[in-house]
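From the methods appendix. Each design record in this collection lists the tokenized structure first, followed by the designed amino acid sequence. Records were kept in a plain field format so they could be parsed without special tools. The example shown here is representative of the layout used throughout.

RECORD:
FOLD TOKENS (222 positions):
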């Protein structure tokens, strides 16, 4: 199997998993208390004027959308899982929701800010650069993006890679594919390079509660 087809299957499996768990999402999970995420989300919101438009990318069941709405913003949520979007619509009917994967974002200077939390760990290395560029295009000049990058268990990732090498797998370093759902963990240096290549500037970077946190800004055109 070619790697492109394999990655397509990984993405379809991820979508199917989230569709499957969506009916009981708010009962089992809800808005969990990740202090570092909530802290950086407030820092992001402080940079977006009240009444702004915010893209909640890979929004899932809308876990963070209530906080965006409470801060006085209009929210557009996108996700590749129709099941998760249905849960989001039930909880936050005042927001706008659309079925769209991160790889398919197609907005032009439409948002004052964007968030992408608990999601990029499911994105393969081939798709990262394009997604960063799509975020830049979706933001108005000077707009901010807050996203998280999950910090991996290095031994788990190493062990996974060693296991699949004997099976003629398509997996590359940093991927965790022989588990329930696909994961990829880029290095800090690689993330920084993709940010810069997309025309984004890091304003703040932190680490906590299992994630690295990035608040970046679209450069003002001269």
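DESIGN:
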């Amino acid at each position: 199997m070619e790697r492109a087809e394999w990655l397509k299957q990984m993405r379809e499996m991820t979508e199917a998993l989230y569709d499957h768990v969506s009916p009981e999402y708010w009962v089992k999970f809800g808005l969990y208390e990740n202090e570092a995420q909530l802290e950086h989300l407030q820092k992001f919101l402080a940079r977006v004027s009240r009444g702004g438009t915010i893209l909640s990318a890979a929004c899932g069941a809308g876990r963070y959308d209530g906080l965006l709405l409470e801060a006085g913003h209009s929210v557009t949520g996108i996700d590749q899982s129709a099941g998760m979007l249905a849960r989001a619509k039930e909880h936050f009917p005042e927001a706008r929701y659309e079925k769209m994967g991160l790889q398919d974002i197609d907005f032009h200077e439409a948002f004052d800010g964007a968030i992408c939390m608990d999601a990029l760990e499911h994105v393969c290395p081939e798709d990262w650069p394009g997604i960063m560029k799509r975020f830049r295009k979706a933001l108005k000049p000077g707009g901010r993006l807050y996203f998280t990058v999950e910090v991996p268990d290095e031994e788990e990732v190493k062990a996974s890679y060693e296991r699949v090498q004997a099976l003629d797998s398509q997996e590359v370093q940093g991927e965790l594919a022989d588990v329930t759902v696909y994961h990829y963990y880029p290095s800090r240096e690689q993330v920084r390079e993709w940010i810069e290549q997309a025309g984004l500037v890091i304003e703040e970077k932190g680490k906590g509660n299992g994630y690295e946190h990035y608040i970046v800004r679209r450069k003002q055109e001269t």
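APPENDIX NOTE: The longest helix spans residues 3-21.
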